[in-house]
From TrEMBL:
<protein>
    <recommendedName>
        <fullName>5'-Nucleotidase C-terminal domain-containing protein</fullName>
    </recommendedName>
</protein>
<feature type="domain" description="Calcineurin-like phosphoesterase">
    <location>
        <begin position="44"/>
        <end position="246"/>
    </location>
</feature>
<dbReference type="Pfam" id="PF00149">
    <property type="entry name" value="Metallophos"/>
</dbReference>
<dbReference type="InterPro" id="IPR029052">
    <property type="entry name" value="Metallo-depent_PP-like"/>
</dbReference>
<dbReference type="InterPro" id="IPR006179">
    <property type="entry name" value="5_nucleotidase/apyrase"/>
</dbReference>
<dbReference type="InterPro" id="IPR006146">
    <property type="entry name" value="5'-Nucleotdase_CS"/>
</dbReference>
<keyword id="KW-0964">Secreted</keyword>
<dbReference type="GO" id="GO:0000166">
    <property type="term" value="F:nucleotide binding"/>
</dbReference>
<keyword id="KW-0378">Hydrolase</keyword>
<dbReference type="Pfam" id="PF02872">
    <property type="entry name" value="5_nucleotid_C"/>
</dbReference>
<dbReference type="InterPro" id="IPR036907">
    <property type="entry name" value="5'-Nucleotdase_C_sf"/>
</dbReference>
<dbReference type="InterPro" id="IPR008334">
    <property type="entry name" value="5'-Nucleotdase_C"/>
</dbReference>
<dbReference type="InterPro" id="IPR004843">
    <property type="entry name" value="Calcineurin-like_PHP"/>
</dbReference>
<comment type="similarity">
    <text>Belongs to the 5'-nucleotidase family.</text>
</comment>
<feature type="signal peptide">
    <location>
        <begin position="1"/>
        <end position="19"/>
    </location>
</feature>
<keyword id="KW-0732">Signal</keyword>
<keyword id="KW-0547">Nucleotide-binding</keyword>
Length: 540
């Protein structure tokens, strides 16, 4: 059972970190390990979706691995049984990854002292070979029960679970099943059903060991964490990532920390996650009974700010790593009179999506007058480009994947089906989930109605000055990621795609040509007029 003072203190924790340090440290020193009733106290620190934010990413000082290191190094020595776990997506998001790949990330997280990590989808962005190099440099266990790989390094280093003998505790890892659709794992690396993998691993641990305390370290998202908890037995704690969900932060939170749901045996399962980018360090302390069930808990997300002391040695090292790419990244390539927003790109037409697609179209039309339009996935747009000077670093942060442009040709009928799949969320040929919205260039206009229940979301599509001709052939500029099957836009890869320059270099050249950038939305992707009028009438 949970005491009211613990719950009250949990709600106040983000604002009372110093008081929490003193109070909880005293309590832990008084009662640790198995007590007379066979119970066990275990502390967990956890982090997720850091996305290469080794250094501060806001003027307020939000996040710095030097600051996280300080918090961990101060708190763990007073805990007799603690683990520091990483729920994945260390890759992708800043120039520390774009410039160094996984090298400096591996060096940093080794120094932070993690006890285990599961893999996020972005760990596969550079392919299996790059991930293999990263994994060989790590000094702690890598766990994911639903990954099967024929790659020799991945096969050797990724285990389904790890047992921490000192604590008689097992931690199972899992990675989102959508990874092949949204990242670039090799053909011989597959991802099985998460719930089946977790339950099978729980059963294996219980059948072959005396371990009853079992936790999961997941990279599947907050909603899927809850579904996992509700559809398994024998699992009582889930530490997750992937969805960048703020829990218990007191501001813009999407749920309590922990979130408690009931499993198939009607027992409580505790779910925690720690937002993104290292802005929060998750912390939960639980008491297990002999059967591995959680009797009580306390803790909460710890906010990392510029008032948190830094590990000066680690911070100096990170500053040194900045040197080689800082001058390159700081080069101004143009200016913008408007904010090129990324925030709405997964929901509707957005300025940065328009601008990137227009850049691709203009680039190809310099060499070929047969191309009709450009199409990209909104999921590949990672950050807003602010109003004012635009630097190379901003371009690389917004489009960090190193994708190449490709030219493909398809029939109007196939194009209609592709667009229908994107707006309905399911590829019409493969029946696979489409995992991103789209953005398009000038040259195509799409009207859709998300409320349609007549089997189609599309209302109309025009290319150039004419309605889409189902029997005509259209030439499209897109990305190699999409042409190869990414996000399930296209049912089969385009073997005859023409490979062109990289996305970031095309955008840099376009910014230089268009500066100062001054654009507005033009309705190339629009919601059906009747639905728009309904929304306006409702708002009025």
């Amino acid at each position: 059972m949970r005491s009211t003072w613990e719950l009250g203190l949990l709600a106040l924790l983000p604002a009372l970190v110093s008081a929490e340090d003193v109070l909880y440290s005293e309590r832990r020193l008084q009662k640790r390990y198995i007590d007379g009733d066979g119970n066990w106290n275990q502390s967990f620190f956890h982090i997720n979706d850091v996305h290469a934010h080794l250094d501060e990413f806001r003027s307020s000082g939000t996040d710095c691995t030097g600051e996280i290191s300080t918090v961990i190094n101060e708190r763990r020595p007073v805990l007799n049984s603690s683990l520091f776990l990483n729920a994945g997506d260390e890759f992708q998001g800043t120039l520390f990854y774009t410039y160094y790949g996984g090298e400096k990330i591996a060096e940093t997280i080794n120094q932070l002292g993690f006890d285990g990590m599961t893999l996020g989808n972005h760990e596969f962005d550079g392919g299996d070979d790059m991930l293999g190099q990263f994994l060989e440099n790590l000094t702690f266990p890598i766990i994911s029960a639903n990954i099967q790989s024929g790659h020799p390094v991945l096969n050797r280093t990724i285990k389904p679970y790890h047992i921490y003998d000192d604590f008689q505790l097992a931690v199972i890892g899992v990675t989102t099943e959508t990874t092949p659709d949204i990242s670039s794992p090799g053909e011989n690396t597959t991802f099985s059903d998460v719930r089946t993998a977790v339950q099978n691993t729980i059963d294996l641990i219980r059948d072959t060991t005396n371990i009853t305390r079992i936790a999961a370290l997941t990279h599947i998202g907050y909603d899927e964490d809850q579904a996992l908890a509700q559809n398994t037995t024998g699992l009582y704690l889930i530490m997750g990532g992937h969805s960048h969900t703020p829990l218990g932060t007191g501001q813009d939170e999407e749920g309590p920390y922990p979130t408690i749901v009931r499993n198939l045996d009607d027992e409580e399962v505790f779910i925690v996650t720690a937002y993104r980018w290292g802005e929060y360090l998750g912390y939960i302390d639980v008491t297990y009974d002999e059967e591995g069930r959680i009797l009580e808990y306390h803790g909460g997300p710890i906010h990392i700010t510029n008032t948190t002391a830094q590990n000066e040695t680690l911070q100096a090292q990170i500053e040194e790593w900045r040197g080689p790419f800082e001058a390159f990244a700081a080069e101004e390539i143009g200016t913008s009179n408007v904010v090129l927003d990324q925030e709405t790109c997964q929901e509707q037409e957005c300025l940065l999506g328009n601008f990137m697609a227009d850049a691709m179209l203009a680039y190809r039309r310099n060499e070929s007058d047969t191309v009709d339009f450009a199409l990209i996935n909104a999921g590949g747009i990672r950050a807003t480009i602010d109003k004012g000077p635009i630097t190379r670093g901003e371009v690389l942060t917004s489009f960090p994947f190193g994708n190449s442009l490709v030219e493909i040709t398809m029939s109007g009928d196939d194009l209609w089906n592709v667009l229908e799949g994107i707006f309905s969320g399911v590829n019409l040929v493969s029946n696979e989930e489409v995992t991103s919205f789209l953005q398009v260039s000038q040259g195509i206009q799409i009207e859709y109605n998300p409320k349609n229940d007549n089997g189609t979301k599309l209302v109309s599509v025009s290319v150039g000055d004419s309605d889409l001709d189902r029997e005509a052939q259209y030439t499209i500029v897109t990305l190699d990621f999409l042409a190869g099957g990414g996000d399930n836009f296209f049912a089969t890869p385009f073997e005859d795609a023409i490979t062109l320059d990289t996305q970031d270099e095309v955008l840099v050249a376009y910014i230089q040509q268009q500066s100062p950038v001054d654009i507005a939305l033009d309705g190339r992707i629009s919601v059906h007029a009747e639905l728009r009028w309904t929304k306006l009438a409702t708002a009025a």
